[in-house]
Design brief:
By secondary structure, the chain is mainly α. The protein is built from six helices and no strands. The chain is globular, with a radius of gyration of 18 Å. The relative contact order is 0.15. The mean pLDDT is about 90.
């Protein structure tokens, strides 16, 4: 197998790092949205701005792929990673938007546990992206994300059980379930990002 030329250009890694940093900010806004004292309209407005900034970074990644002759790894993997990071932001933005639109006043404390999982996933992903350039010390990343995703699954089941326990009115159950599913979707999207990173590391390592 011949040696593969790896470009010195670090712009792809910088863009992936920026994209992951958007997720850290998005997770922080999501945590703020869950606070009973937060100005939800203001948080939602800032989240929309953050989601727009994340979209711009995703577009920059796609544009860079399309204009670069030699990419640091397979184009399909670059598209998949950029799209995966964007999906996480979209799901967090959806959760914030639903809280605002549904005018949910009281959120079950279990949702905070899910947001804590999301915050940790975002931090780990932001730390991992710069390491794509060396393809070193990445296995701990996807292993921990997988563990966090399992934690999120358990939290998800417990939250659903509480929603259907009779403690909440039917209309509130319907509203909260949508929000719960958005949070679960964001955690699942983080796992897909980690899986993509693993696939890249296996190919390029």
């Amino acid at each position: 197998m011949g040696l593969r030329f790896r470009p010195v250009d670090t712009s792809f890694y910088d863009l992936f790092t920026t994209s992951a940093q958007h997720l850290v900010g998005g997770a922080e806004l999501l945590a703020e949205m869950l606070s009973e004292t937060s100005d939800k309209a203001n948080v939602a407005e800032r989240m929309r701005a953050a989601e727009h900034a994340a979209d711009e970074t995703t577009h920059a990644i796609v544009k860079k792929v399309n204009s670069t002759f030699v990419t640091p790894f397979d184009r399909e993997d670059i598209y998949a990673l950029g799209s995966g990071l964007d999906d996480v932001m979209d799901m967090m933005d959806e959760a914030v938007d639903l809280i605002l639109l549904y005018e949910v006043k009281t959120l079950p404390p279990e949702l905070s546990e899910q947001v804590e999982v999301l915050q940790r996933c975002a931090e780990l992903t932001a730390e991992a992206m710069p390491r794509l350039q060396s393809m070193k010390s990445l296995d701990d990343y996807w292993i921990e994300i997988n563990r966090l995703e399992n934690t999120g699954d358990r939290n998800h089941r417990r939250t659903l059980a509480k929603l259907f326990s009779g403690e909440f009115k039917t209309i509130e159950v319907l509203k909260l379930k949508d929000i719960v599913e958005s949070l679960e979707g964001a955690i699942d999207a983080f796992e897909k990002v980690a899986n993509t990173v693993e696939q890249i590391a296996v190919k390029e390592g």
